[in-house]
Amino acid sequence: MKNNQQGFTYPLTLCLLILFIIFFSMHIERLQTERMLAHETAAILQQEYYFLSSVKKIEVIFQAGGSIPSKGTIIFLNGTMNYQAETPSGYVQKVNFTLRTKAEESIIGRGFFDTRTKKLIKWGE
């Protein structure tokens, strides 16, 4: 029986090994892509949370004091939010927000507050 195979086992084993390596590498690549996507999603959600928290704090300051301070800083666990308020034009006051994260990213957002209702009316990044 050994004489009838004529080297059939080695090529079959090699093909199976190559197929296993191909499928294994595809699964590793998919796992790495999912991890990267999850990390980026978490970073984006954290940035959005920092912007939302900052806007709410500015609204509280605006409603309590009657005006927004011209400059200020809000410190978070993984970043710092700087804001700068411009002088009101009519019933709208523009506030520029700059978020600096520990990853040295800088994201800019703009909020427009209504001075009559003392609430955010428009947001842009």
Structure, explained:
The chain is α+β, with helices and mostly antiparallel strands and 125 residues long. Helix content is 49%, strand content 30%. The protein has 2 helices and 5 strands. It has helices at residues 2-5, 9-65, and strands at residues 71-76, 79-85, 92-101, 106-114, 119-124. A 5-stranded antiparallel sheet has the order 1-2-3-4-5, covered by helices on one side. β3 and β4 form a beta hairpin. The longest helix has 57 residues, at 9-65. The radius of gyration is 28 Å and the shape is rod-shaped. The mean pLDDT is 90.
Describe the structure concisely for a colleague:
The chain is α+β, with helices and mostly antiparallel strands and 125 residues long. The protein contains two helices and five strands; from the N terminus they run H-H-E-E-E-E-E. It is rod-shaped.
